[in-house]
Amino acid sequence: MTRSKTPLTLDPAVLGALLDGAWAAERRRGRALVEHPDAIPPVTGDLDELRAATLRGVKALAESGATFRSLPEELGGANDHAGYVAAFEEAVTASPSLQIKAGVQFGLFGGAIQHLGNAEQHAQWLLPAQRAELLGCFAMTEIGHGSDVASIGTTAVYDPEEQEFVITTPFRAATKEYIGNAAAHGRAAVVFAQLVTAGVDHGVHALFVPIRDESGVPLPGVTIEDDGRKGGLLGVDNGRLSFDGVRVPRTNLLNRYGDVAPDGTYSSPIDSPGRRFFTMLGTLVQGRVSLDGAAVVAAKLGLDIAIRYGLERRQFTGADDTEEVVLLDYQQHQRRLMPLLAETYANGIAHEVLLESFQQVFSGTDDSDEARQVLETQAAGFKAVSTWSALDILQECREACGGAGFMTENRLTGLRSDLDIFVTFEGDNTVLLQLVGKRLLGDYAAEFKNIDFGGVARFIGTQAAEHSLYRSGLANVGRTIGEVLTPGLTERRIRSGRLQQMLLSARVDTMVAELAGNLRPAAKMSRADAAALLNENQHELIEAARAYIELLKWEALDTALHSLDDDPARADEAKALRRIRDLYGLTLIERKIGWHIMYGRLSMNRARQVGPTISRLCTKLAGNAADLVAAFGYGPEHRRATIAEGIEAERQAEAREHYRRARAQADHPVDEKVLHAARKTAARS
Amino acid sequence: MTRSKTPLTLDPAVLGALLDGAWAAERRRGRALVEHPDAIPPVTGDLDELRAATLRGVKALAESGATFRSLPEELGGANDHAGYVAAFEEAVTASPSLQIKAGVQFGLFGGAIQHLGNAEQHAQWLLPAQRAELLGCFAMTEIGHGSDVASIGTTAVYDPEEQEFVITTPFRAATKEYIGNAAAHGRAAVVFAQLVTAGVDHGVHALFVPIRDESGVPLPGVTIEDDGRKGGLLGVDNGRLSFDGVRVPRTNLLNRYGDVAPDGTYSSPIDSPGRRFFTMLGTLVQGRVSLDGAAVVAAKLGLDIAIRYGLERRQFTGADDTEEVVLLDYQQHQRRLMPLLAETYANGIAHEVLLESFQQVFSGTDDSDEARQVLETQAAGFKAVSTWSALDILQECREACGGAGFMTENRLTGLRSDLDIFVTFEGDNTVLLQLVGKRLLGDYAAEFKNIDFGGVARFIGTQAAEHSLYRSGLANVGRTIGEVLTPGLTERRIRSGRLQQMLLSARVDTMVAELAGNLRPAAKMSRADAAALLNENQHELIEAARAYIELLKWEALDTALHSLDDDPARADEAKALRRIRDLYGLTLIERKIGWHIMYGRLSMNRARQVGPTISRLCTKLAGNAADLVAAFGYGPEHRRATIAEGIEAERQAEAREHYRRARAQADHPVDEKVLHAARKTAARS
After folding, report:
1. Span B144-156, mean pLDDT?
2. Is the Cβ–Cβ distance between B354 and B383 less than 8 Å?
3. CB–CB of B231 and A204 under 8 A?
């Protein structure tokens, strides 16, 4: 079916306000960065040029003052963590390299000093860092250990005689790897190392370590290698750092969660080394929060470009011999792009919920353990799902634009290459979802051993409830698997929000309950057997985590939709959002429709409605596609893609005019025939 | 579950022989290209360098004599089309840019002259083309028309007075676009244009048009623009060509299927312009055939790299405190990679079937209309499914290698970027699957109108049978939808090949029958309504085509497996192939499991076995993963990825040795504790 011929009357600003959320003003400020003459690095060039240009962009961002927003008021900031992140995410519109290099400089390097350091360290290093005067690295990952940070090999051994730490890379696998700002621009690094004092290892801690002198030459004992060419983010100078007995003063330890006295005595406000480790890492959650948002920005840009092109580009005749069909009038084109548009709305609106959690915890409004755990679980899961989503979306957009989509000037391939590593850094997505899954199940290794099965079920119920901002439905885990959800099945309409929520949450419930059941014998097993049993359930654990995160995103969309309920002036926007929610929900249900049927959640009769309903929703939404991308709030200065700004329509008008004139001229009767014969042939192909 | 501890004893050469097929010798010759000093272009550099290096590689390929194999014997060739293609596909191991630039030069430019030209033209242009002395372009696609070639705007108007054709680009949308060899190296082009003589348009024909003089300067009337940077294939110099009244002699028309006499009289051995058009295009099917194979080569390289790394890389401890777990022992890692390995076996073995069809038709053994149609349908469908598959596989491999996968030196991102456009060029995959779907349904526009519904069902049965090398099961379309397939349901084991084939073919049957039913009213509709109805079924049509192609691939794998049936010495290889077939089959069934249940093909009880069976197959195959990739026949000279050649194991050994020595030295007791504490924490995360 061609696009809906009776589209809704939408005000993109109303939808834009929902998408941009509580920090809309900061978001718009971030978007305005593209106007700065240094903001947009060139798309191509050699590595040196790209890196230098990206650094200029980072400095432009610092100039704007945005990088101070998240600092405490006493340091000239606004204690506005979410506002800072919202503005910073929008730097993707300038370039993902800029956004990531800025993330390294301000979020990771500056952030580690802010969250792990003391007031003196803030004064000495944090302010110059946020001004982009002191350029630095975040040296955590090693070649041998990326996901498993606790097992890094770098050591910082305290020498009480000199009151110094000695930083050493004891073997090649302990080389710091993929470190942004290392290859060219960094003067210092926050180095994560196993802290050893008085012969005892206290686990991973962070130290401020100068790595280059004023002129950019590596300091004695510091070896720096350039990672060279990567699959994307060419403006970021990633490199390797290794240390051969590099000495730093005792006071270079970022000592908020662990300190060493001059005599070598270790102290920490947190007794458990495990808890200390996760608390330190937890302060760095901002990276995951901002990648979730940055992925949404990139997906929006991709869809904005592909949908604008899809509304102009024509190929093949359909209903008559001469008028070619607009791509977005093809059902398959709608089915390719509209569900991704709905997914982007879900990811975007859910991100605003994540920003709320983030602001609460980091501003101190609610920094309880529980609030932190909810934040960390959401950040991990949202980041994983959004970044994968962005890659799929950018690829589909690339393909939907055909050969034009492959041209660098149309941005899609560049955005996708740059976003590629988003699924790996700041926590590999698979590892992150496993983390979410384990939180849903409770800490298997530490807790399950001492609880009987009845207790496991209860434990899971409680744990999960802690991590859900909404009702995740996990309270229902006691139900027998396969039991019919009566309220769901009596809903007649597949577009009922209640039914969708029921299906999505029943799946999470059941999967978690099943997993708990499967893992029950682990309590009485040897460590090796228990590890094997957990491994046999790893795939299901990750699937359950994904289902849970998707439920949260669906619920965010549903909540946003209901915020328009009482305003008759926004009835059409509410209707559009309801279509978006339904398309998102039904797409999720369709992907696992076998599960919903097999577990008796969805009758076959109802299940058969899902596909056709998705097609109808796509057609309806396609009728409003222009408004739905206009709501993203981007202009040509953000898209910067030739094909998104009307060139197709211009060229088609020229061709039409040529054929019209040819028809009018007696001596060129041939042209009409050319077109006619060709199109007749094409229509038959 | 960790990898199977009781792997089969496999001889990679036995599996390799099946994968390499009938043209194994040519394939190995193609693989040996990497030994030529000019074969491997640099991975990075500016466009000029990359293009020049790629051209040297193309010349190296010509030097090897490989480019003559597909020529007829009288021109010094071997009439060995499949052998040529097999060798040429393997050029991907040198670089996809080389393969594609060679494809433009020898397959498209040379191929068009060979298949559309006459003996004199062969002598004049084909031999220098295949020696890479005369570099040329294949100028078909225009900015305004890519998929719909019949509607291109370029005209070639015959001028009987001068006995010349006048080539013109009448408006911007008619500019030839994305033309390989155009931006830098091409001296001539085969230009596709609407041929007009004596005031009558005869549709699209191809002409040989010089575009640059000896010194490389564009000829008068020829405008050449550089496409500049693309998302990949940077070694290929794509560009735009437009023509302002460029004159070529009458004898430059490649006149096999259409000629113009000196006085302007048009003649053709094929009366119908539509049939003529598709016959001309059909001679160029080699491009699609070779992309199918090239995609398989790229997927093999990716899996070879990622699986070798996955067998060495360790992260997190599991069963004990010190020994970290190898990635491929994680269930999720197995679930990520093993189904893709099975898919690659299916795509590779099915490609050999396609090569057989190709050789039959092009060598003249069987070039009946029916054989050509089967070939074209297979080529379109196989290419679409394999190229999408390659992109998914390369991305999953990239992610499975974490940060290391993102480094250019490890090849995965480069391969993926280069393969990206494979899903678009030589026929957009969506358009190709639609073509397959329409062939399955019969030519809707031309045929359906005159057939009643009973006839439609019969017609579809016959049509489809023509396109299936195997029994596609389409003979069953008469059955009522939902009817139980008794033979299937009495099979107890989900690993039964018979059951898998039944399920996969029943899905094709039913979808085609449903589509025919849905489209039935079109016979009596207006053109506009009929077009709308077809469009409403476009998504299902494409899904049906994909299901059909996947069935053919499954059947190719099944046939290959049974070729080992009678050889007890190859029992383990047969067992491994059976696991691969089952994993491929069950993965396809799992993706659409809702469908199989809803249509009563699979009981819920049986359906519940699918997921766990897939997991078990992944674990078993992981136990033989090293042999299964060794069967691809690639060495370090083809992979050229640092992480695939043992560096991880080396670094781990160093680290282990460091910790061992530290334990042995009384003054370094600390190190063991570091490791221990860290790993304990990690295990609890």
Report:
1. 95
2. no
3. no
Contacts of B146 in chain A (CB under 8 A): 315, 402-403
User: Which of B356, B395, B461, B47 is closest to B227 using CA atoms?
Assistant: B47
**Percent of all residues in chain A with a pLDDT value above 70, rounded to a whole number:** 90
Dist CA B190 CA A612 (whole Å) = 45
Contact by Cβ (8 Å): A342, A614? no
Q: Which of B278, B598, B615 sits opposite A604 (nearest CB)?
A: B598
Nearest Cβ partner of B413 from A201, A231, A604? A231
pLDDT mean over B563-574? 94
A177 touches chain B (CB under 8 A): yes
Cα separation, B301 vs B121, in Å, equals 39
pTM score: 0.94
Mean confidence (pLDDT) of chain B: 90
Largest Cα–Cα separation, chain A: 102
Single-letter amino acid code for the residue at A226? D
Q: Quickly tell me which residue has 């083809």 as its tokens.
A: B638
Taking the Cβ of residue B320 and every Cβ of chain A, the question of whether any pair is shorter than 8 Å is answered with yes
List Cβ neighbours of B298 (8 Å cut-off, separation of 6 or more).
Answer: B92, B96, B390, B394, B415, B418, B419
Among residues A354, A505, A358, A515, the alpha carbon closest in space to that of A438 is found at A515
- Terminal-residue alpha carbon distance, chain A: 20
pLDDT tens column, B357-416: 999 999 999 989 889 989 999 999 999 999 999 999 999 999 999 999 999 999 999 999
Q: State whether residue A44 sits within 8 Å of chain B by CB.
A: yes
Residue of B nearest to A662 (CA): B170
Interface of A with B in 452-491 (CB under 8 A): none
Residue type, A233: L
Q: Which residues of A touch B402 (CB under 8 A)?
A: 146-147, 424, 428
* A366 class by beta-carbon count within 10 Å (0-12 exposed, 13-18 middle, 19+ buried): middle
What percent of chain B shows pLDDT beyond 70? 90
CA distance B414 to chain A (A): 7
Q: Please calculate the CA angle B248-B253-B259 and round it to the nearest 5 degrees.
A: 130
Beta pairing class for A164-168 and A155-159: antiparallel
Q: Which of B174, B406, B590 sits opposite A421 (nearest CB)?
A: B406
The arithmetic mean of pLDDT across residues A587-614, rounded, is 94
Q: In this predicted model, what pLDDT tens digit does every residue of B635-679 receive, in sequence order?
A: 999 999 999 999 999 999 999 999 999 888 755 444 444 455 444
- Matching residue, tokens 């003589």: B197
Cβ atoms of A164 and A249 closer than 8 Å: yes
On whether the CB atoms of residues B474 and B509 are closer than 8 A, the answer is yes
Q: What is the pLDDT, as a whole number, of residue B523? A: 80
The ipTM estimated for the assembled molecules is: 0.94
* A74 to chain B, closest Cα gap in Å: 35
pLDDT digits 0-9 by tens, A261-270: 999 999 999 9
